[in-house]
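Worked problem 6 (solution included).
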Amino acid sequence: MQKLLRVIKVLNINFVSTYSHKLKKLFLINLFMMSSFASSEIEFYGKLNLNIENTDSKTSQETDFKNNASRIGIKSSFLMSESIKISFQVEAEIDPTDIKADEDKVFKERNTYIAISGNFGKVFTGTHDTAFKNTQLQIDQFNDTRADIKYILLGENRMNSMIGYTSPYIIKGLKISLNSISQSAGSYESISADYSINKIKASFAIDKNAKGYKSERFAIMIPFQNVDIGFLYQSSKQLLVDKSYSGHVISIKRNFLNKDSLYVQNAKSNMKILSGNQTSIGYSHKINNTTKTFLHYSKLTKDTNSDDITFASIGFEYKF
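Solution. The predicted structure is:
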């Protein structure tokens, strides 16, 4: 594994030093043309996730429309041979509430990459969620909303200038993922091992020097009849000052008749907020295969009671 990681790191350094962002975008366009020429299907997809949210603190109260990482994208793949497949994805966040997804920009880059896959696994480069971030196994029932675990825990990173590798199954149920990421502040690695047996999933990951932190994360998702129970534990060390933090997430989701879900979640850590503790409850109703509505209530407590904040929202999600 160490040899493979060194190879990926060297490839990443050479790639970043050789190609600018413009050339990478041009390469994506060329790949798009190649896939079209190969008569492969190009999929256009997207998601709108919006809600009306009331925010209440000791000092203020406001109600506003919120965008929860709405997005659009295209993706495609084609076979180079019987055993080699080339694929790509270009995805961008949009904000229908004010048409500004990234400060003054209309689009904000999400997972955008090219990949080659086969019996050896999958190799990709571009912008992508790190292996460490993906370790959460969808335990976060409030992903992309104001109760997202990214407000409590470190390591929820999507990085550019990345070369990644995902192995085939090494043994039954076990895969590994290796990322080498080059940034202006230095390079680092993100590594994970994912294991699944029946419907139980478990994952362990390490971030090495990610934004000045070394982190370890363990997560497990256990389904029991119509209930999904998730647990995540994380430890992080700030390398510059040698200071350590820990945190956890616990979530329980109960499904009813394949249309309705009730879920509760608690996330707790000092990593981003002193004595940060966020407890949330949500309910969603599936209207059809593309549309659902939801109700969320969340309370974020901090070191002093005067900083406590509650969030109450009603919204919808539409996928296309």
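Discussion: The radius of gyration is 21 Å.
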